[in-house]
Amino acid sequence: MVKVLTTFFMAMLPIVELRGAIPVGVGLGLPLWESIVLSVIGNLIPIPFILFFIKKIFAWMRTKSPKLNGFVDKMEAKAAAKSDQVQKYEFWGLFLFVAIPLPGTGAWTGALVAALLDMDWRKALPSIAMGVCGAAVIISVLTYGGFKIITG
Fold first, then answer.
1. Cα→Cα distances 21→10, 32, 84, 89, 140, Å
2. Contact, 82 vs 49, CB < 8 A?
3. Could you count the other beta carbons within 10 Å of the beta carbon of residue 85?
4. For 108-120, how does the pLDDT look when each residue is reduced to its tens digit (9 = 90+)?
5. CA nearest 134: which of 19, 12, 16, 14?
6. Which residues contact 80 (CB under 8 A, 6 or more apart)?
7. What is the pLDDT of residue 151?
8. What is the DSSP letter of 13?
């Protein structure tokens, strides 16, 4: 049960997301398919909350302290710097942004960008979900291949 919960909750974390959770789950001894399912579900759970509430949370944080205000400024600047592709191609841009496992991309940042760009959640949520599934495929292939090379 610890392996399952570790994989699931790791996928919920920003930065780590399923890109880290799938290899960790497999490394802990879970079957690849179970690591994928747990990681996709765990990665998707925070997304609606980000899409619907991040602007209100950021506004609240700005009123609490200068440090939190600076943190919000950094997060908004990061999202703005990553928003060109999403603005240009909308649904498919957001999908690619989430799916391609590069540093600074992923479901959390994609949801933040979509929310700050006022993207319709009915477009953003399926795009992010598809992107998470795409990232899961890429990471699974890399994980499976990596573990095959290591174990011979």
1. 5, 11, 28, 29, 10
2. no
3. 16
4. 999 999 998 999 9
5. 19
6. 116
7. 60
8. S
